[in-house]
Amino acid sequence: MNHPWAVHLAASAAPAAAELRMEAGIEVLDADDTLWLRGKLCDERMDLLLRRLPGAARYEVLADGQLLPEGRRLPGGRVPEGPWVAIKSWAAVELPVATLAARCTQRIAIRLEPVSASDEPDLLVCSLADWSDYATRAPQVRLERLTFAASADGRVLVRGVPLPPIPGMRYYERAGVAVPCGWGWPSWLTAELVRAALPVDTGAVALFSPDGTWEEIPADQFVRAARSAVRLTVQGTVGPGPSTSSPGGAK
Description:
Elements: E1 5-10, H1 14-18, E2 27-31, E3 34-39, H2 44-51, E4 57-61, E5 67-69, E6 85-86, H3 87-90, E7 113-114, E8 123-127, H4 128-137, H5 140-143, E9 147-150, E10 155-159, E11 169-174, E12 177-180, E13 183-184, H6 191-197, E14 205-208, E15 214-217, E16 223-224, H7 227-235
Parallel strand pairs: 12-14
Antiparallel strand pairs: 1-3, 1-4, 2-3, 2-6, 4-5, 7-13, 8-10, 8-11, 9-10, 9-16, 11-12, 14-15
Helix pairs in contact: 4-7
C-alpha cells in the first residue's frame, strides 16, 4: 500500500479507465491495442478503484522502474517510456453542438445513466392542453411560483417549485442543465462540467433526454405563468416560443 503503481489494460477497457479521470495524479499511455495507467500513490481507496478495472494486470513500481506483479516476489519488465499524458487530457469530455428543433440532435459521447435517487424536480414537460386546463383552475398563488415556455408542436416546459400535478416528464435542473428524474451523469461527471462544454447562451437551459440528445431553451422564452399568457398561447395570438421551436425555442 502507499506505493507507486502501474496497470496494464486492453484497449477495450478504455471506458472503465476514463471513469478515473477525476482522480489526481493518474497518467495514461495509449499504446497500440493496450493501455497503461500509472500513479504515485496506491492507498486503500485507489486499490479498490483499480480492482474494478476489467482484465487489469496490476503492478507495484519499484524505485528503479521495474514492475513487480501483484502477488509475486520477483519483478518482471519495466514501466514503458511513454509518452504519458494526464488522464484528464486523455479522457476529455466531448459534447456536440445543438441542432435546430424538430430535427434529431446529436448525441454526446457520454450517456446518462439510471440512478436510484435524484433531486427534487423543478421542470416539467407536458402538453399544452394539460397545462392550459391546469392553469385555468389553479389558484393564482400556485401560478405565481411558475414560469413556462411553449412550442408549436404542443409541448410546454413549466419551471418552478412545486410543479403542477399534471402528466408529463419531470426534470431536475442544476447549473442550467436539466436531466430527467431517475437519470444522472456518471459519478465523475458534474452538471457544471457539462454546462461548461455546451455552446449555450447565459441563462439558457440545456434540456437533456435519457438517450443523450438535448435542446437549448433560451432564457427569454420563459414567461410568468399568468392565466392571460396561457390563454393567449393557446389561442396562438402570442406565445413565449417561436413557431418553429422546441420548448422555449431550442437552438
